[in-house]
Amino acid sequence: MKPFKPQLIYIEPGALEYPLGRELKDKFEKEGVEIRETTSHNQVRNIPGDNELQQYRNAKSTLVIGVRKTLKFDTSKPSAEYAIPLATGCMGHCHYCYLQTTLGNKPYIRTYVNLEEIFDSADKYMKERSPDITRFEAACTSDVVGLDHLTHSLKKTIEYMGQTDLGRLRFVTKYHHVDHLLDAKHNGNTRFRFSVNSDHVIKQFEPGTSSFLERIEAAGKVAKADYPLGFIVAPLILHDKWKEGYYDLFERLEAILPHYAKKDLTFELIQHRFTKTAKNIIQKRYPKSKLEMNEEERKYKWGRYGRGKYVYKNEQADDLKETIQTYIDRFFPEAKLEYFT
Ligand code: SF4
User: Fold this and answer.
1) Kind and range of the H or E element at 275?
2) Is the CB of 97 under 6 A from ligand 1?
3) pLDDT band, very low/low/confident/very high, at 306 (cuts 50, 70, 90)
4) Cis bond upstream, residue 13 (ω within 30)
5) Least trusted range by pLDDT, from 160-174, 210-224, 301-315
6) What are phi and psi of 305, to 5 degrees?
7) What is the pLDDT of residues 61-98, one digit of tens each?
8) d(CA 300, CA 311)
9) What is the pTM of this model?
10) Which atom of ligand 1 lies closest to the CA of 90?
């Protein structure tokens, strides 16, 4: 998987008041990428394409450089207290992606250049919770690692958190472009997680992301650079022969991961869920997808803001949880299972 290279850039004029905004403009000018102006990163118009599907595909290779105005952070349960907003959108094409619901008609990739203001805000949240630790999740609205070779804003955030006593950073990725992050002064305050899944799920539903092997090799590098390491197995899908598929995943993970990466390891487990909105969008954007989204076979779980979702029925969810837990106990007896949701 090659590192992401945007085909089209939009810049908000306000972004040029920040060093990172100017730096990115220079960089893309030199590379000859088309640059357009947009009045607001919230309303990017005229993304090329003759129909919605083409526009969607082009939006996923469009980078919008903007200023984050809302400095109030969303909460981010269960993995952290707050979501730190560095970017939104992703170049990947995972059929099940939760951004289908949360970003809806804004699938383009946005990066925010006012990092100092974002860090000031993070600082306030930390002070509010002091003396307790405050965890910030950087991957709620994007796969930031997939983008960071261009912006280095994640790297700066890692170093910023590294200097704090009470701040912790975490994010998850399906990309292996981690080399520039290996020398960041993280001070053990960042947990670097990789998203993994059965071979079936990766092959069927995760186009445009790094392969399993690439992700695990990157995980080894990250562990060597002394980052706390974790894996998110998500979404857990009850596909044909899922028990064998997930067994095989843990077996391969254990075989490939270097020994030093196996200490202080965490696992987070998330079962597949979908909303009605997401289902409609996914069927339009990935019409040939084999992703099962049959409401009748699922349990409806009420959610905030009327965003109720369909999860597996209790018996199936219990089976999933117990099965995966057995695999973790068998292959990674010292690892910590943080949650199943
Ligand atoms: Fe969505 Fe993550 Fe896939 Fe990107 S890599 S499309 S954020 S699930």
Assistant:
1) none
2) yes
3) low
4) no
5) 301-315
6) 55, 35
7) 999 999 999 999 999 988 899 999 999 999 999 999 98
8) 6
9) 0.96
10) 4
For residue 45, what pLDDT band results from cuts at 50, 70 and 90? confident
Ligand 1: which of 61, 90, 201, 289 to mutate, most ligand atoms within 8 Å of CB? 90
43-47 long-range contacts, CB within 8 A, separation 24+: 44/10, 44/106, 44/108, 47/8, 47/108
CA-closest candidate to residue 124, choices 156, 154, 82, 152: 82
How far apart are alpha carbons 155 and 161 in whole angstroms?
10
Sorted by where each starts, the structural domains of the chain and their CATH numbers stand as: 73-105+114-340 (3.80.30.30)
Segment 155-161 shows an average pLDDT of: 98
Kindly report the average pLDDT of the chain as a whole number: 96
* The token pair that represents 15 in the structure block: 């972004």
Task: Kindly report which listed range (212-221, 231-240, 302-311) carries the lowest average pLDDT score.
Answer: 302-311
How many CB atoms sit inside 10 A of residue 263's CB?
11
Q: Which of 54, 50, 102 is nearest to 74 (CA)?
A: 102
CB-ligand 1 contact for 143 (6 Å cutoff)? yes
- Rounded distance from Cα 227 to ligand 1 centre (Å): 22
Tokens of 152: 């280095």
Residue 197 near residue 164 (C-beta atoms within 8 A):
no
